[in-house]
Amino acid sequence: MIISNITHNYRRSKKALYAFLLLLFLYNISFAQSLLSIDSMGYYLTQLNNKRVHDSILVTKAMTIIDAKILNDKQFSKADSIVEHYKNKLGIEYYYAFRYDLNFGLVIANNHKKAYEHFTKDITYLKASNNKYLHYLLAHNFMQLRVPIRNSDKIYEGIRHYLQWIDEYEQKNDSVIVATLYHGLRSFYSTLGLMEKSYDTHKKCIQFLPKKEFIPIKYWVDFQPTQTGLEALYSQKWIMGSVYLYDGLLDKAAAVLYELKDEYENNNQTANRIPFPQLYMELYSYQSVTRNDSIVYYRKKCEQEFSKAETSPILYMHFYQGLANDFYLDKQLDSAEFYIKKSIFIQDSMQLGVSNDYGTLLTGYYYSIIKVEQKKFKEVIPLLTKEIEQLVQSNQRIAVLQEYEVLANAYKAIGDYKNATIVLENYKNLKNEITNDEIKSRSVSFEIEQSILQQKRKTEELSQENEKNK
């Protein structure tokens, strides 16, 4: 999908991903990875013969190797050199499709600085191209660029870029690109704590989303697009409902999610509809928070949606995490521990961190609060220290605050007041930092928007002056 951070890369081969996961579960990780060596990419690319269906199969197999690995610097350099070597044979479309996968691999590996450099370089070329497929790929690059921007010191620079690009593509009436850019922009505001601006920007994203299919039909042969325009619209509304829910705005969350539920069910009467389990997962989370009697109904609806088609293991991880939290709230600690362990098992098998396509996974946190209820305070400390390190790296400061509180209390419970004091001091400093950044963010964001508005006015005045001269 183009317009949602919850959708898999449109080039990912589901069968290959599940085969990879099976290897991980049956064998150890190092052995499984040896079967998917970066070197073997060249084997597939030597067989390209400029016949689209034949080549698309080979390219998909080669890309699957990238998709199945978390790229370190050495692996990235090796894969990059292979792609460069076969650039002419690949052709410009497949070449930039490979570049996208490599850059996305850097994001998964949390190498945000290098990912930012490579994405911005490719975007410069893609923006200048008139190729329809590369234009489609440009939307993907805009979508994924938001992640290294959000997780680095480039966030103000990112706001400036995205506002300028929005202005540029609004003038071109390119609703797909504009909606994509608004989605990235709202995530920047959200990261900075400017929630009202984030909500307003997200509404603009939904407003610009086209409902019709916008993927060039000829490229269905090459890759498997996972969503139509309408489904992208569902995804954005789902994200908005989930953000409201996360921020504790339950009335707004309920309004968005139940409206979406009606829309989805009314537009999907056929048995072969594409499943949308994340919608029912969010409604399940809402019921879990409000403790409504219909929570069992939504749990079953989630499972029904999962059964309709192959579902990403990452989505299962979030579902199991939600189940664990639900049972935790009901004080059914054995069941809560059972499901959080299932989520952690998949997470470790896939070598995934806290950030993924479906949002933030906090298995360490949810397991630790179960441990607190079980009075196993010593087991809380390694769970949280490991996860906090990843959250800090991903710049997810609100989640870090939440985990600092639990960690400090765990240290207190075992009588380690020295470390408890250190953690509480870290909590205090981070909270002050967030508050100060929110003040700075409002000022900087306003200055950026005013600067772009003035530039736009000058351009319009110059254009009018030129018309008069003519």
Helices and strands in order:
Blueprint: H1 14-26, H2 29-34, H3 41-45, H4 52-67, H5 73-85, H6 87-108, H7 112-128, H8 132-150, H9 155-171, H10 175-191, H11 195-208, H12 229-246, H13 250-267, H14 277-290, H15 295-307, H16 313-329, H17 333-349, E1 355-356, E2 359-360, H18 363-373, H19 377-393, H20 397-413, H21 417-469
Report on the structure:
This protein has 470 residues and is mainly alpha-helical. 75% of the residues lie in helices and 1% in strands. The chain is built from 21 helices and two strands. A two-stranded antiparallel sheet has the order 1-2. Mean pLDDT is 79; it is low at 1-35 and 216-228.
Looking across the biggest beta sheet, what order are the strands in?
1-2
> What kind of sheet is the major sheet?
2 strands, antiparallel
Query: What's the alpha carbon Rg, rounded to whole Å?
Result: 23 Å
| Number of E-state strands | 2
Average of per-residue pLDDT values: 79
The number of distinct helices, counting runs of at least 4 residues, comes to 21
* Through-space gap between termini: 45 Å
| Low-confidence residue ranges | 1-35, 216-228
**What letter string, H or E per element, gives the SSE order?**
HHHHHHHHHHHHHHHHHEEHHHH
Which structural class fits the helix and strand makeup?
mainly alpha
Annotation keywords:
470 residues, globular, two-stranded antiparallel ribbon, 21 helices
